[in-house]
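Give me structure tokens for this 268-residue protein.
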Amino acid sequence: MSCHLSDILAAYVMMETNMYKTLSALLVGLLLISAAAQAQKSVTLSASTSPPYADRQLPEQGLAMEVVSHVFKRAGYSPLINFDTWPRAMEGVSVGLFDALAAAWYSEARDKEYLFSEPYLSSKLILLKLRSNPANYTNISQLTGKRLGTQVDFAYGVDFQKVAGLTLVPENHAIQNLLGLLNGSVDVVIGDQRTLAMQLHAYLAHELHKFQVVDVNLPTRARHVAASRAIAGGEQLVADFNRALAEARADGSYAAIVAKWDKRYSLN
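Here you go.
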């Protein structure tokens, strides 16, 4: 009888021990899951559609969005990007609906309202003309008397008023400028190199050989992440992004993303 009781007690002790181990393992697992969830802090970003930099229809939502997402993930964040018009994107960040703008150009006026990250992507402006046009422009001042295709609300950083007799022909979309160049309604088109290259590949691939990049030195524009100064946590968010951006540049992952997109849309 005593032997039977000892067997029962031993089995009970073993069952309690196994249950304790199981509960301990579950507790550790829950703690690890909780820690991982805390480590992957969410960050909500707002952007306006601007292919190939930001467009929900493109792979990884565009070049700039892929870079920003890659950097934030490296910094321990889980990024969520919302697309809207540019005015609504800025308003959403200003009132705290979103944590930051995903792609913003710096200006002194904006600096009063937003905390800007280090620049993470530069955009080069170029001039395009038709190869059949024999003119050899080396300076924008030589566009005197010409018709220049531009985009509405695009901040070029160029004082066109200094070019005597220059006529600006504004359009809503880059493809309209390129078609205007083909049909002779403009003499030259100015725009972002990657944007123009993408439009040519997407819509005018068979006409690509007719276009020529003009060798004129134009300003570059840099994109930044920008958080509202009025919302708590913005400084830490920008600091985390800057740190992870430096790491991504150092290990080559940043350069690989940019090179992939530039190879996809090349004017060479």
